Amino acid sequence: GENVEQHPSTLSVQEGDSAVIKCTYSDSASNYFPWYKQELGKGPQLIIDIRSNVGEKKDQRIAVTLNKTAKHFSLHITETQPEDSAVYFCAASTETSGSRLTFGEGTQLTVNP
Amino acid sequence: NAGVTQTPKFQVLKTGQSMTLQCAQDMNHEYMSWYRQDPGMGLRLIHYSVGAGITDQGEVPNGYNVSRSTTEDFPLRLLSAAPSQTSVYFCASRKQGSTEAFFGQGTRLTVV
Questions:
Q1: Which residue of A has its CA nearest to B38?
Q2: Which among B23, B42, B24, B38 has a CA at the least distance from the CA of B109?
Q3: What dihedral do alpha carbons A51, B94, B43, B110 form, nearest 10°?
Q4: Among A41, A46, A104, beta carbon nearest to B101
Q5: Which has the minimum average pLDDT: A36-45, A47-56, A67-76?
Q6: Poorest-pLDDT segment among A6-15, A91-100, B31-40, B71-80
Q7: Nearest-CA distance from B24 to chain A in Å?
Q8: How confident is the model at residue A9 (pLDDT cuts 50, 70, 90)?
Q9: Which uninterrupted H or E stretch holds B55?
Protein backbone atom coordinates (compact mmCIF):
# COMPACT_ATOMS: atom_id res chain seq x y z
CA GLY A 1 0.00 0.00 0.00
CA GLU A 2 0.84 3.69 -0.01
CA ASN A 3 3.47 5.04 2.40
CA VAL A 4 3.88 8.76 3.09
CA GLU A 5 6.87 10.19 4.92
CA GLN A 6 6.91 13.74 6.23
CA HIS A 7 9.80 15.95 7.36
CA PRO A 8 10.61 17.64 9.61
CA SER A 9 8.64 16.45 12.62
CA THR A 10 9.11 19.82 14.31
CA LEU A 11 9.83 23.23 12.82
CA SER A 12 10.37 26.51 14.62
CA VAL A 13 10.58 29.81 12.72
CA GLN A 14 10.51 33.49 13.50
CA GLU A 15 7.43 35.48 12.60
CA GLY A 16 7.75 36.71 9.01
CA ASP A 17 10.06 33.91 7.92
CA SER A 18 9.07 31.16 5.50
CA ALA A 19 8.36 27.56 6.47
CA VAL A 20 8.73 24.51 4.24
CA ILE A 21 7.42 21.01 4.99
CA LYS A 22 8.27 18.11 2.69
CA CYS A 23 6.59 14.79 2.01
CA THR A 24 7.45 11.78 -0.12
CA TYR A 25 5.08 9.05 -1.26
CA SER A 26 5.65 5.55 -2.54
CA ASP A 27 2.71 4.69 -4.80
CA SER A 28 3.15 6.16 -8.27
CA ALA A 29 -0.62 5.75 -8.79
CA SER A 30 -1.36 8.43 -6.16
CA ASN A 31 -2.90 11.45 -7.81
CA TYR A 32 -4.38 13.61 -5.06
CA PHE A 33 -2.31 15.35 -2.35
CA PRO A 34 -4.05 17.43 0.34
CA TRP A 35 -2.54 19.30 3.26
CA TYR A 36 -4.34 19.57 6.59
CA LYS A 37 -3.81 21.93 9.52
CA GLN A 38 -4.67 20.74 13.01
CA GLU A 39 -4.94 23.23 15.82
CA LEU A 40 -4.76 22.12 19.43
CA GLY A 41 -7.85 20.19 20.49
CA LYS A 42 -9.45 20.31 17.04
CA GLY A 43 -9.79 18.04 14.06
CA PRO A 44 -7.68 18.46 10.91
CA GLN A 45 -8.85 21.09 8.44
CA LEU A 46 -8.00 21.13 4.74
CA ILE A 47 -5.88 24.15 3.80
CA ILE A 48 -4.76 23.36 0.27
CA ASP A 49 -4.58 20.43 -2.11
CA ILE A 50 -3.05 19.55 -5.46
CA ARG A 51 -3.74 16.99 -8.14
CA SER A 52 -1.12 15.15 -10.14
CA ASN A 53 -1.80 17.08 -13.33
CA VAL A 54 -0.59 20.31 -11.68
CA GLY A 55 2.94 21.17 -10.56
CA GLU A 56 2.19 24.06 -8.24
CA LYS A 57 -0.77 25.72 -6.57
CA LYS A 58 -0.94 28.91 -4.53
CA ASP A 59 -3.48 30.37 -2.14
CA GLN A 60 -2.35 33.66 -0.61
CA ARG A 61 0.59 32.84 1.71
CA ILE A 62 0.36 29.09 1.14
CA ALA A 63 1.71 27.16 -1.82
CA VAL A 64 2.16 23.50 -2.62
CA THR A 65 4.53 22.01 -5.18
CA LEU A 66 4.49 18.51 -6.63
CA ASN A 67 7.27 16.55 -8.33
CA LYS A 68 5.70 13.39 -9.73
CA THR A 69 8.99 12.02 -11.04
CA ALA A 70 10.63 12.18 -7.63
CA LYS A 71 7.34 11.42 -5.84
CA HIS A 72 7.53 14.26 -3.42
CA PHE A 73 5.46 17.33 -2.62
CA SER A 74 6.00 20.29 -0.35
CA LEU A 75 4.05 22.92 1.57
CA HIS A 76 5.42 26.45 1.59
CA ILE A 77 4.13 29.10 4.00
CA THR A 78 5.46 32.62 3.50
CA GLU A 79 5.35 35.57 5.91
CA THR A 80 4.50 33.26 8.79
CA GLN A 81 2.31 34.51 11.61
CA PRO A 82 1.84 33.18 15.18
CA GLU A 83 -1.61 31.87 14.18
CA ASP A 84 0.10 29.57 11.68
CA SER A 85 1.39 27.56 14.67
CA ALA A 86 -0.22 24.11 14.45
CA VAL A 87 0.40 20.54 13.36
CA TYR A 88 0.42 20.12 9.58
CA PHE A 89 -0.26 16.82 7.85
CA CYS A 90 0.33 15.87 4.25
CA ALA A 91 -1.66 13.04 2.69
CA ALA A 92 -1.87 11.08 -0.53
CA SER A 93 -4.57 9.14 -2.27
CA THR A 94 -4.75 6.82 -5.24
CA GLU A 95 -8.21 8.10 -6.01
CA THR A 96 -8.83 11.59 -7.25
CA SER A 97 -11.91 11.63 -5.05
CA GLY A 98 -9.66 11.16 -2.04
CA SER A 99 -11.91 8.68 -0.28
CA ARG A 100 -8.97 6.80 1.27
CA LEU A 101 -6.18 9.04 2.52
CA THR A 102 -2.73 7.95 3.69
CA PHE A 103 -1.29 10.58 6.04
CA GLY A 104 2.25 11.59 6.87
CA GLU A 105 3.39 11.66 10.48
CA GLY A 106 2.76 15.37 10.94
CA THR A 107 4.91 18.48 11.50
CA GLN A 108 4.56 20.67 14.59
CA LEU A 109 5.13 24.21 13.33
CA THR A 110 5.85 26.92 15.90
CA VAL A 111 6.00 30.56 14.81
CA ASN A 112 7.77 32.68 17.38
CA PRO A 113 6.66 36.32 17.70
CA ASN B 1 -24.60 23.97 10.48
CA ALA B 2 -22.98 21.59 13.00
CA GLY B 3 -20.81 19.73 10.47
CA VAL B 4 -19.32 16.52 11.89
CA THR B 5 -20.17 15.85 15.53
CA GLN B 6 -18.39 13.25 17.63
CA THR B 7 -19.39 12.04 21.07
CA PRO B 8 -18.05 11.62 23.64
CA LYS B 9 -15.04 13.96 23.62
CA PHE B 10 -13.23 11.95 26.29
CA GLN B 11 -13.60 8.37 27.52
CA VAL B 12 -11.74 6.04 29.85
CA LEU B 13 -12.37 2.32 29.53
CA LYS B 14 -11.13 -0.71 31.35
CA THR B 15 -9.55 -3.52 29.32
CA GLY B 16 -12.27 -5.78 27.98
CA GLN B 17 -15.08 -3.24 28.13
CA SER B 18 -17.07 -2.38 25.05
CA MET B 19 -18.27 0.98 23.83
CA THR B 20 -19.45 2.87 20.79
CA LEU B 21 -18.00 6.12 19.52
CA GLN B 22 -20.68 8.18 17.85
CA CYS B 23 -20.30 10.22 14.68
CA ALA B 24 -23.02 12.24 13.00
CA GLN B 25 -22.93 14.67 10.10
CA ASP B 26 -25.67 16.99 8.89
CA MET B 27 -24.21 17.84 5.48
CA ASN B 28 -25.80 14.91 3.61
CA HIS B 29 -22.33 13.58 2.77
CA GLU B 30 -22.17 10.14 1.20
CA TYR B 31 -18.67 9.23 2.37
CA MET B 32 -17.73 8.79 6.02
CA SER B 33 -14.61 7.36 7.64
CA TRP B 34 -12.90 6.74 10.94
CA TYR B 35 -9.22 7.45 11.66
CA ARG B 36 -7.08 7.00 14.73
CA GLN B 37 -4.28 9.40 15.55
CA ASP B 38 -1.24 8.25 17.51
CA PRO B 39 1.90 10.26 18.33
CA GLY B 40 4.41 10.23 15.50
CA MET B 41 2.14 8.16 13.24
CA GLY B 42 -0.25 10.62 11.68
CA LEU B 43 -3.82 9.49 11.07
CA ARG B 44 -4.55 5.91 10.07
CA LEU B 45 -7.78 4.79 8.40
CA ILE B 46 -9.81 2.26 10.41
CA HIS B 47 -13.04 1.83 8.41
CA TYR B 48 -14.89 3.80 5.82
CA SER B 49 -18.28 3.92 4.11
CA VAL B 50 -19.30 5.18 0.69
CA GLY B 51 -22.99 5.22 1.52
CA ALA B 52 -25.74 3.83 3.72
CA GLY B 53 -25.44 0.06 4.01
CA ILE B 54 -21.90 -0.06 2.62
CA THR B 55 -18.74 -0.29 4.74
CA ASP B 56 -15.18 -1.42 4.12
CA GLN B 57 -11.95 -1.90 6.02
CA GLY B 58 -9.12 0.58 6.10
CA GLU B 59 -5.50 0.21 7.16
CA VAL B 60 -6.05 -0.81 10.82
CA PRO B 61 -9.53 -2.41 11.16
CA ASN B 62 -8.81 -5.13 13.73
CA GLY B 63 -10.72 -4.72 16.98
CA TYR B 64 -13.26 -2.31 15.50
CA ASN B 65 -16.70 -2.72 13.92
CA VAL B 66 -18.80 -0.21 12.02
CA SER B 67 -22.23 0.01 10.47
CA ARG B 68 -23.96 2.62 8.32
CA SER B 69 -27.72 2.31 8.64
CA THR B 70 -28.34 5.98 7.79
CA THR B 71 -26.54 8.62 5.76
CA GLU B 72 -26.05 10.78 8.85
CA ASP B 73 -24.56 8.32 11.35
CA PHE B 74 -21.42 6.18 11.33
CA PRO B 75 -20.75 4.65 14.78
CA LEU B 76 -17.49 2.91 15.63
CA ARG B 77 -17.72 -0.03 18.04
CA LEU B 78 -14.99 -1.46 20.22
CA LEU B 79 -16.15 -4.92 21.28
CA SER B 80 -13.39 -5.65 23.81
CA ALA B 81 -11.14 -2.66 24.46
CA ALA B 82 -7.38 -3.16 24.69
CA PRO B 83 -4.66 -0.72 25.87
CA SER B 84 -3.36 -0.63 22.27
CA GLN B 85 -6.59 1.12 21.33
CA THR B 86 -5.71 4.13 23.45
CA SER B 87 -5.73 6.90 20.88
CA VAL B 88 -7.53 9.94 19.54
CA TYR B 89 -10.27 8.98 17.10
CA PHE B 90 -11.49 11.22 14.30
CA CYS B 91 -14.53 10.83 12.14
CA ALA B 92 -14.60 12.49 8.72
CA SER B 93 -17.17 12.97 6.00
CA ARG B 94 -17.02 14.01 2.36
CA LYS B 95 -19.56 14.66 -0.37
CA GLN B 96 -19.39 12.42 -3.41
CA GLY B 97 -17.70 14.31 -6.22
CA SER B 98 -15.83 16.60 -3.83
CA THR B 99 -12.32 16.09 -2.53
CA GLU B 100 -12.55 18.00 0.77
CA ALA B 101 -12.95 15.86 3.87
CA PHE B 102 -14.45 17.46 6.98
CA PHE B 103 -13.27 16.18 10.34
CA GLY B 104 -14.95 16.09 13.72
CA GLN B 105 -13.19 17.39 16.83
CA GLY B 106 -12.11 13.94 17.94
CA THR B 107 -12.65 11.50 20.81
CA ARG B 108 -9.75 10.92 23.16
CA LEU B 109 -9.97 7.32 24.36
CA THR B 110 -7.86 5.82 27.14
CA VAL B 111 -7.94 2.08 27.85
CA VAL B 112 -6.47 1.08 31.20
A1: A105
A2: B38
A3: 170
A4: A46
A5: A47-56
A6: A91-100
A7: 14
A8: very high
A9: strand B54-57
Q: pLDDT digit string (tens) for B43-66?
A: 999 999 999 999 999 999 999 999
Cα A23 to Cα A50: distance, rounded to the nearest angstrom? 13
Omega cis (within 30) before B75? no
Among B10, B36, B43, the residue to mutate for chain A (most A Cβ within 10 A): B43
Residue type (1 letter), A49? D
Q: Is the Cβ–Cβ distance between A30 and A93 less than 8 Å? A: yes
Q: Of A36, A43, A98, which is closest to B106 when you measure between CB atoms?
A: A43
Q: Which of A6, A97, A101 sits opposite B45 (nearest CB)?
A: A101
